[in-house]
Design brief:
With 153 residues, this protein is an alpha+beta fold. The chain has one domain: 3-Layer(aba) Sandwich (Aminopeptidase). Helix content is 30%, strand content 25%. The protein has 4 helices and 7 strands; from the N terminus they run βααβββαβαββ. The chain has a 7-stranded mixed beta sheet, with helices on both faces. Strand 4, helix 3 and strand 5 form a beta-alpha-beta unit. Helix 1 packs across helix 2.
């Protein structure tokens, strides 16, 4: 992984796409975004994507939508498995949430796999609140339940 190279958070570039595709597959082996979806999301929301970089490779990314009626969605937060639990997800989310505030977002929504306790704990610590009623069954299709969470900015 990053070895002795310092990690930094920076805005995404088009050259990052192959690395993000690989990172997404590593982080979400049972349901990564297809290449073409990531391609279009990066094109549509390039100003709302941050990456964790050591100068040679990427180790994390976060992607959100532009505010629509003052509401944004975090579409993905991924950290390479070997660097999870080191605060990189928090750093990415904090930077992104600050940007969303400046762009006029008043609330931010996201969905998370209901058994992903570490992600849910991170989101709660940032102020996200689960939607009433608990996880939504089959939100992403049969057997793909998701917990929806909202942060009021």
């Amino acid at each position: 992984m990053s070895g002795e190279r310092p990690l930094r958070i920076r805005a995404v570039t088009e050259a990052d796409l192959p690395h993000i595709v690989r990172l997404d597959a590593d982080a979400f082996p049972h349901g990564p975004y297809p290449y073409f979806v990531l391609r279009q999301l990066l094109a549509a929301y390039a100003d709302l994507v941050y990456v964790v970089d050591d100068g040679t490779d990427l180790y994390g990314y976060v992607l959100a939508t532009s505010p629509n009626d003052a509401q944004s969605w975090v579409l993905s937060l991924a950290i390479t498995p070997g660097l999870r639990g080191k605060g990189l997800g928090r750093q990415l989310m904090t930077k992104l949430l600050g940007l969303l505030r400046t762009k006029g977002a008043h609330s931010v929504r996201l969905s998370v796999e209901p058994r992903n306790d570490s992600a849910i704990a991170l989101y709660r610590s940032l102020g996200f609140v689960p939607d009433p009623g608990g996880p939504r069954a089959d939100y992403f299709g049969p057997g793909e339940d998701r917990l929806l969470m909202t942060l009021t900015l």
